[in-house]
Amino acid sequence: MELTVRTGENIGFLPWTPAVMAETGGELLMIHHDDLMRLLHKLATDAGAKVDINAPVQSIHAGISDSKPSITLLDGEELRADLLIGADGSNSIVRNVVLGEANRAKPGGLTVYSGIIDAEKMLSDPELRPLVLTDDWPIWTGPRRSCIGHPVRGDKREYAIGVYSWTDPDGQDGQENWEESVPTEAAVTEIDAPMLRRLLKLTPRLVRTKYMARDQDDWTWVDRTGRIVLLGDAAHPSYGLQAGGMHTTGMAVEDAVVLGCLLSNLQSMDQLPTLMDAYQELRQRRCALVGLADLGNAQMMALPPGPEADARDEDMRRQRNEWDEGMLKAQFEEISGIFLYDAGDAAEEWWINWGRFHKNVHGEPSVVDVEVHCDRG
């Protein structure tokens, strides 16, 4: 459902037709980030993983020759592993070691304000109540400013809200993390739609996150020893539009699935560099394409007045029964590019076609310890 940030006028809606969604082989589900973290933590610990909380890393050391990489914690403890995975976010310190240089990022012109609203507060408002009780995904569009909202968790106890604000990069506010909390008033500038203003004011503060752009054409996700590898925002921060991207977390989970599937075939440490190169080969293009789709959607929602914005609104005004075969085909191609992807299948296909032919120079399988450094933000 598309509305305007200026007046709240209902422009139309873009249905994801049941026939198209059925082809994806799954459901579109929304999950709270904290719930996902708890789920992954349980899966990891049930499998025998040890998770250390509040263990800040002071330095990272790449291995030389056959020596293992290591990390030194702030308290002086040193940890070594056969493989070190840097999943430490957009401002990754592991990435600096892999690339051999400090972070090179510049403001990308987009600031995202996000928050969670207690859905109970919305039920007493006749206009806000349907947002909780239906499966519609409202999108408020406007010049250089847009907003999205949707329930989270299966019982719809909470409602997520996000405001996308495009500005001159030189004057862009915020930090590239999820730590900065600002008053809601900072996000309602140029938003006049009464319903949207009431919705935003149900949460006193919002998290402000700055989108930072990076040139990643020559990036490698694996260090020269093949023993340190990047994952998630550490590997592809601007690809996933870390500030408000719809698929940022999904890309990190896909990374982990591919990496885990490849490592399940490891019999000797001499295979590790080949498997790590395959991991980047399988994931880098996928992350770039999905990231560009995220960025394109954010730009489309905030088009300035003109022919492009008019064409977008006209498409949204079309009713489902007005769609012809060509429009359904176009929607399927757009949706399938994101959702008709199985990370496990991609890794298995590579292994069957290429990986199993890698020659093992050792006679006996190696026992591999994996150290995961994961830090939100």
From TrEMBL:
The keyword Translocase does not apply. Coiled coil: none annotated. The keyword rRNA processing does not apply. One of its GO terms (molecular function) is FAD binding. Gene3D superfamilies: FAD/NAD(P)-binding domain. It holds the Pfam family FAD_binding_3. It comes from the Eukaryota. Residues 27-287 form the FAD-binding domain. Keywords: FAD, Flavoprotein, Monooxygenase, Oxidoreductase. Belongs to the paxM FAD-dependent monooxygenase family. PANTHER family: MONOOXYGENASE, MONOOXYGENASE, PUTATIVE (AFU_ORTHOLOGUE AFUA_6G12060)-RELATED. This is FAD/NAD(P)-binding domain-containing protein.
